[in-house]
Design a protein that fits this description.
Number of strands: 12
Oligomer: single chain
Bound molecules: protoporphyrin IX containing FE
Strand order of the largest sheet: 1-2-8-5-3
Radius of gyration: 20 Å
Number of domains: 2
CATH class of the largest domain: Mainly Alpha
Helix content: 40-55%
Cofactor: heme
Protein name: Cytochrome P450 26A1
Subcellular location: Endoplasmic reticulum membrane; Microsome membrane
Structural class: alpha+beta
Number of helices: 11
Membrane topology: Peripheral membrane protein
Keywords: Endoplasmic reticulum, Heme, Iron, Lipid metabolism, Membrane, Metal-binding, Microsome, Monooxygenase, Oxidoreductase
CATH superfamily of the largest domain: Cytochrome P450
Order of helices and strands: HEEHEHHHEHHHHEEEEHHEEEE
């Protein structure tokens, strides 16, 4: 691996441009908190062209700030509360279908479809029947657009989850009950630690500056690596092991920030963070309380391109879980 050979900051090439790749909490801190001062977001030109300059991720300065504030309102606690029944309904419908699907379900494409439906209903205000009619074409058109660009892969944790925390009512979820699902929250955190879906972020140096003894010239691209930063984080001993319990402990007061950054940080922090967490929790609750499942190929090989996904599409057999 390049990082082991060259260290936490090294020069590489991205789409033919000189680029510096940065890893490690302390270095990342400078990049994420240096937005507008040292660096500025700059996605590769293909992304900028396809998404356009009017999307939040391509906006800058005060325009970015104002728009971000407005979008964040759509993900406030009150707003999220209203989305929960819609998310739960979509997830339940999908899981019911998976339980009768033979011989198996390809979970990765199915999850993309499910996430797409939820996004259509919540973010675009579609009615369920409107999506059923055109779903296939819409999904295909959308996939065409985001091919190799941006998607939301979500891992299904392997096993060993607690099925129901302290006899809670998991049929009628709300923000409060979701917040009480502490262990489920830790499972999600651990999943996003081991396989952060967005492996890193793109910046450009606004001026020549020094980072930990290395000079980064003005105009060079900077990539900050989320997956490598998680990999070298000292706060996670036994890093290869899937141990949700590690998040049950209170973090040490002096443990440096930016060791765990699945949603980025600073002024470019993900706007969909709370929405994604709510959605993933609801999904986990539904799958764990209703299904047994077997990954037909065993634990998947994950690949990055550009987001993280299971190479085999995750063929899985679901059967109904009956409480004993
Ligand atoms: C598990 C799910 C998700 C992960 C891991 C994730 C990760 C990230 C990361 C790492 C960034 C920062 C990129 C950077 O520093 O340049 C980001 C930004 C962003 N995310 Fe997410 N995201 C997720 C879900 C979502 C969802 C559901 C939405 C929308 C509904 C969303 C919308 C955005 C937007 C608009 C930005 C750009 C923010 C800005 O430039 O100010 N994300 N996301």
């Amino acid at each position: 691996m390049k990082r082991e050979k060259y260290g936490y900051i090294y020069r590489t090439h991205l789409f033919g441009n000189p680029t510096v790749r940065v890893t490690g909490a302390e270095n990342i801190r400078h990049i994420l908190l240096g937005e507008y001062r040292l660096v500025s977001v700059q996605w590769p030109s293909s992304v900028r062209t396809i998404l356009g300059s009017d999307t939040l991720s391509n906006m800058h300065g005060s325009q970015h700030k104002t728009k971000k504030k407005a979008i964040m309102r759509a993900f406030s606690k009150e707003a999220l509360e209203l989305y929960i029944p819609v998310i739960q309904q979509e997830v339940q419908t999908a899981v019911k279908r998976w339980l009768v699907q033979d011989p198996c379900v390809l979970v990765y494409p199915e999850m993309k479809r499910l996430m797409f439906r939820i996004a259509m209903r919540i973010l675009l205000g579609f009615q369920p029947e409107q999506i059923w009619t055109d779903e296939q074409q819409l999904v295909e058109a959308f996939e065409e657009m985001i091919k190799n660009l941006f998607s939301l892969p979500i891992d299904v944790p392997f096993s060993g989850l607690y099925r129901g925390e302290n006899g809670m009512d998991l049929e009628n979820l709300n923000i409060e009950s979701l917040e009480q699902l502490k262990y489920t929250g830790c499972v999600l955190k651990e999943t996003l630690r081991i396989n952060p879906p967005v492996p890193g972020g793109f910046r450009v140096a606004l001026k020549t500056f020094e980072l930990n003894g290395y000079q980064i010239p003005k105009g060079w691209n900077v990539i900050y690596s989320i997956c490598d930063t998680h990999d070298v984080a000292e706060v996670f001993p036994n890093k290869e092991a899937f141990q949700p319990e590690r998040f049950m402990k209170k973090p040490l007061a002096d443990s440096p920030r930016f060791q765990y950054i699945p949603f980025g940080g600073g002024s470019r922090m993900c706007v969909g963070k709370e929405f994604a967490k709510v959605l993933l929790k609801i999904f986990l609750v539904e799958v764990v309380t209703k299904c047994h499942w077997t990954l037909l190929n065993g634990p998947p090989t994950m690949k990055t391109g550009p987001t993280v996904y299971p190479v085999d599409n995750l063929p899985t057999k679901f059967t109904s879980y009956v409480k004993t």
